[in-house]
C-alpha cells in the first residue's frame, strides 16, 4: 500500500544521483566561498538561502572584487529561471496547504526540479508533495554539508574527479529525456533546449535557459496539429 | 556600512529574490486545476520543462559557459558522445541507475582517451 512515507523514501532513493553530484559540486562552492573572503556562516547561508551553485559561484566571484550590486544582480538574473520551473511543477504537486508549499519551495533547484518533474508528470504518485520532499530531503542537506566541508577542506577532491562528477547530473538528465521516447514533441523540446541554450547563453548571459525554454515551448505549441491537440 | 554587512546584505537580498521566484508561480498555479483540464498552459510548461532539462545538459557540456572556446574543446565531443550513448542505452534498459553509471564510466574512459 502506498503511503506518504513510502513516496517520501522513493523520492530520497531517486535523488541518489543528485546527492552524489551535490556532494562534489558544493564542496567546490564551499571552497570558492572561502577563497572569496566569505566567513563560514556566510558561505552556509548562501547555500541554504540561495541554493543554486551557478548563482553562488558568480556572486562569490563578484563579492571578492567588492562588486556588491553586480553580485546581487547575478543572483537575481541566474535564479530568474526558478520562476519557470516553479510554474511548471506547481500543477503536479496536488493541493497541499499553503504552509507546506511555502516551506518546501525553498529546496527547488534545477536538480530537484528535474528529478521530481518526470515522475510527477507521469501521474503514478499518490502523494506528489511527499515525493518532492523526499528528493529535497536527500539533496538539500547534502548541499549544506558539502559547502561546509569544502570551506574547511579546500582542494580535497582532485580535478579529474571534479570534472567527472560534474557530468553526473547532465548524464542523469539524459535518462529523463530518454524516458519520454517515443513522444517526439517532448523529445524535440529537449533536443532544441540542449542545442539552443548554450547559444542563447552566449548572447544573453544568465537568461539563456529561460529564453530558450519559452521560445521552444511557444514554437512547439504553434506546430501542434489543431485538430487533435492531445495526440502528443 | 562594513564589508561584512554588505556581504550579508547581498546574501539576504539575493535569498529574498530567489524565494520570490520559487514561490510566486507555485502559489498562483497550485490554485488552478490545470492537470485535469489538459490546458494549453500546462502543455506549454511541459514543453518548457523538457527544454530546460535539455538546456541544463547543453550548458554542462559547454564547460565554463564560453561557446566559442567550447567548440574547439575535445571535452564537448566527449560529452556529446556520452550523451548519445547514454540515451541509446536508456532505450534498451529499464530504470535510470544502470545507464547513469554506464554513462559516467564511458565519460571517464573517453576523457582518458581524448584529453
From TrEMBL, chain A:
Protein name according to UniProt: Predicted branched-chain amino acid permease (Azaleucine resistance)
Annotated keywords: Cell membrane, Membrane, Transmembrane, Transmembrane helix, Transport
GO CC terms, sorted: plasma membrane
Family of the protein in this entry: Belongs to the AzlC family.
Main location: membrane
Lineage: Bacteria, Pseudomonadati, Pseudomonadota, Gammaproteobacteria, Pseudomonadales
Ranges that cross the membrane: 15-33, 71-94, 101-119, 131-153, 165-182, 202-223
Organism of this sequence: Marinobacter segnicrescens
Biological process terms in GO annotation: L-valine transmembrane transport
Origin: domain of life: Bacteria
Lipid bilayer topology: Multi-pass membrane protein
InterPro entries per the UniProt record, alphabetical: Brnchd-chn_aa_trnsp_permease
Location relative to the cell: Cell membrane
Automatic annotation (TrEMBL), chain B:
Pfam families: AzlD
Keywords, sorted A to Z: Membrane, Transmembrane, Transmembrane helix
Transmembrane regions: 6-29, 41-62, 74-91
Protein's name according to its UniProt entry: Branched-chain amino acid transport protein (AzlD)
Amino acid at each position: 500500500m502506498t503511503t506518504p512515507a513510502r513516496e517520501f523514501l522513493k523520492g530520497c532513493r531517486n535523488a541518489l544521483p543528485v546527492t552524489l553530484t551535490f556532494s562534489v559540486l558544493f564542496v567546490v562552492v564551499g571552497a570558492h566561498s572561502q577563497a572569496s573572503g566569505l566567513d563560514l556562516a556566510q558561505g552556509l547561508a548562501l547555500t541554504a538561502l540561495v541554493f543554486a551553485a551557478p548563482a553562488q559561484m558568480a556572486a562569490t566571484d563578484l563579492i571578492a572584487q567588492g562588486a556588491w550590486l553586480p553580485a546581487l544582480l547575478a543572483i537575481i538574473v541566474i535564479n530568474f529561471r526558478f520562476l519557470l520551473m516553479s510554474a511548471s511543477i506547481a500543477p503536479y504537486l496536488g493541493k497541499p496547504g499553503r504552509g507546506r508549499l511555502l516551506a518546501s519551495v525553498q529546496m527547488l533547484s534545477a536538480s530537484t526540479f528535474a528529478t521530481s518533474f518526470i515522475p510527477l508528470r507521469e501521474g503514478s504518485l499518490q502523494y506528489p508533495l511527499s515525493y518532492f520532499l523526499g528528493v529535497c530531503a536527500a539533496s538539500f542537506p547534502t548541499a549544506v554539508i558539502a559547502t561546509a566541508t569544502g570551506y574547511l577542506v579546500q582542494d580535497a577532491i582532485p580535478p579529474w574527479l571534479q570534472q567527472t562528477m560534474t557530468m553526473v547530473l547532465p548524464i542523469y538528465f539524459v535518462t529523463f529525456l530518454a524516458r519520454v521516447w517515443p513522444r517526439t514533441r517532448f523529445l524535440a523540446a529537449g533536443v532544441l533546449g540542449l542545442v539552443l541554450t548554450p547559444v542563447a547563453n552566449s548572447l544573453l548571459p544568465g537568461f539563456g535557459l529561460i529564453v530558450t525554454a519559452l521560445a521552444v515551448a511557444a514554437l512547439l505549441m504553434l506546430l501542434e496539429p489543431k485538430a487533435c491537440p492531445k495526440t502528443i | 556600512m562594513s564589508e561584512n554587512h554588505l556581504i550579508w546584505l547581498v546574501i539576504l537580498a539575493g535569498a529574498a529574490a530567489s524565494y520570490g521566484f520559487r514561490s510566486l508561480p507555485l502559489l498562483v498555479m497550485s490554485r488552478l486545476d490545470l492537470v485535469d483540464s489538459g490546458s494549453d498552459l500546462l502543455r506549454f510548461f511541459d514543453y518548457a520543462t523538457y527544454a530546460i532539462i535539455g538546456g541544463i545538459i547543453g550548458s554542462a557540456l559547454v564547460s565554463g559557459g564560453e561557446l566559442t572556446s567550447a567548440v574547439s574543446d575535445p571535452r564537448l565531443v566527449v560529452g556529446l558522445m556520452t550523451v548519445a550513448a547514454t540515451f541509446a542505452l536508456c532505450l534498451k534498459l529499464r530504470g535510470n541507475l544502470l545507464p547513469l553509471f554506464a554513462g559516467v564510466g564511458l565519460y571517464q574512459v573517453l576523457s582518458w582517451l581524448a584529453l
